[in-house]
Amino acid sequence: MRDVAIVAFAQTRHTATDSGLSEPELMLPVLEEIRSQTGMRRFGFTCSGSCDYLAGAPFSFVSALDAVGAWPPIAESHVEMDGAWALYEAWVRLQHGDVDTALVYGFGKSSLGDLRSIMTLQLDPYYLYPLGLDQLSYAALQASALGASRADLDAVARRSREAGATNPHALELPAEPGDPVVDPLLAWDIAPITDGAAAVVLAAGDAIADLAARPAYITGIAHRIDPHYLGMRDLARSASAADAARAAGVGKGHVDVAELHACFSHEELILREALGLPDSTLVNPSGGALCANPVMATGLIRIGEAARRVMDGTASRAVGHAASGPCLQHNLVTVLEG
Amino acid sequence: MPSEDLVADHVLEFPGGYTRTTGPVIGRFLTELRDGRILGVRTQEGRVLVPPLEYDPGTGDPVTGEWVEVGPSGTLAAWSWVHEPRPQHPLDRPFAWALIKLDGADTCLVHAVDAGDPKTLRPGTRVRPRWSAERTGSITDIACFVPEVTRIVSPVRVPYKIRAGASLSRFLEGIRAGTFLGSRCTTCDKVYVPYRSSCPECGNAISGEVTLPDTGTVTTFAINNLPDPRAPQVPFVSAYILIDGADVPMIALLGDVPAHEVRQGMRVRAVWVPEEERTAGMGNIKWFAPTGEQDVEL
């Protein structure tokens, strides 16, 4: 396996409402920051993650390339998923050995439509979509299946909000529970509507040392998926997250920091269990998705935040996790080491 | 940036909707549903999948051709409660989304439960489908699930006419006049209020009538959190009050004081309705209220 490391990471100052920027306008400052961090304008491979349903326009991701600059033609790909899966594709691409750098980005504006109902569109069209099951309802169903105590959920939400208050990229949110939304979820158990974007640069082989003094090496990366239908899996746990963590080798050493893509308080509890994280692991020091959830960038940001802590020396071994699908159906786990 | 925001409405829509083929397994399920039956399919390992899939999600193996009628009742495994239904939800009033294990199935069905009140739901609550009036071969042919019948309400209402009897009549006459009448047993040397014609301790007839003041002391009390038509508000306090000069307490409401401030030994006085409204009934006394005097050692 070829050594691959994260050598740069940048993200927007995420917003709770539409700041009036188009997707390429949202991406451009992030890419400028990446260019300044790496001194590079062209990469061996470029891969992005986004979802056309957020903007309600087919192939909307193509326009984001205007911020990348695609001429002369670049080698480019896209996943209709969180940017974390674009990072996975780029990691695979670097394993081919013929290119040494990859630009990965993800972006999303959840403010344009009703995200809770847009998320209904990802459900199977026969058994779930016709019911109009929305994102908050199925998340609450999973919280109910887990049966976590209100105190445990509050502890996750409170710690996340407190951490997020120190993160300049996160939203400014009140450190109080708020009203019941869909029982058992309260307002602060739910990731906020967010617009934002993020980008990561991967390097392989000799390019790693050229681009970063302290790269964050990807020593493990894997993703696994559970059955889609919510009644055909145990919603109280995440078998696929546990499988991905095992395949990525999370348990081979102490995890100093874990950034978990938990869009709801109870998801963090399920993920900590699945990843086998001890209490000594610092979870979501960025505030996590509960403090900023730019859909389609949130998972990539988790990997970027974990890498940043390896690159700045505050962690020697970190885990970045991304999730996709209803009720943590699909999980990607990366292990990052200095 | 332009000087003002340019904003336009935009709708993404596929007019008429997508046409999707169902395949043999989902198609069979939806066809049976249209006829009011819920069928599952058996996997090679022997589990019954409801709703059925073409493959076993655990192993990826194709399912067998064996169909099993399940339900229609089932039990709740987990549920969330929607306070404010969305336009696309199947119900327009608060309801539950639930994982329902239909009888005979090994997996859970996701559907809505019209339960009225979330407090009526428990793990294991039995539910049954409410079918749509017109069925078309869709998961929404089940309009929702509803709890099974596990209880009925039996109203009881029988009218009577009751007479107060001689002792109580005498006491209530006193009440109409704004006084408390008691009786003294000369054998036991005890004063009872309300007035009574025999001593409950020795059984002797009592003839001695005494007029007592409308002040007394709280001996014990209860804070009631369930509404009662006779009480002014919730929580309300009912107390045993030892009328000054009496040897046994009588029960009455306390008012004009927050429930948490009521204590044993508190001095209280009856609050009477205005004289012109008085009748020969306990309604003459709104409640007892603190006098503000020093508490009494009981």
Structure description:
The complex is a heterodimer of chains A (338) and B (298). Chain A has 338 residues and is of the alpha/beta class. Chain A is 33% helix and 20% strand. Chain A has eleven helices and eleven strands. Chain A has helices at residues 23-38, 52-55, 60-68, 83-95, 115-118, 135-146, 150-164, 207-211, 239-248, 265-275, 298-311; strands spanning 4-11, 45-49, 76-79, 101-109, 182-183, 195-204, 216-225, 257-259, 282-283, 317-324, 330-337. In chain A, strands 3-2-4-6-1-7-11-10-8-9 form a ten-stranded mixed β-sheet. Chain A is globular, with a radius of gyration of 19 Å. In chain A, 58% of the residues are buried. The mean pLDDT of chain A is 96. Chain B has two domains: 23-147, no CATH class; 165-290, no CATH class. Chain B is 8% helix and 31% strand. The model of chain B has no long low-confidence stretch (mean pLDDT 92). Classes of the chains: A alpha/beta (338), B mainly beta (298). The interface between A and B is large, with 39 and 41 residues. Chain A: It comes from Nonomuraea soli.
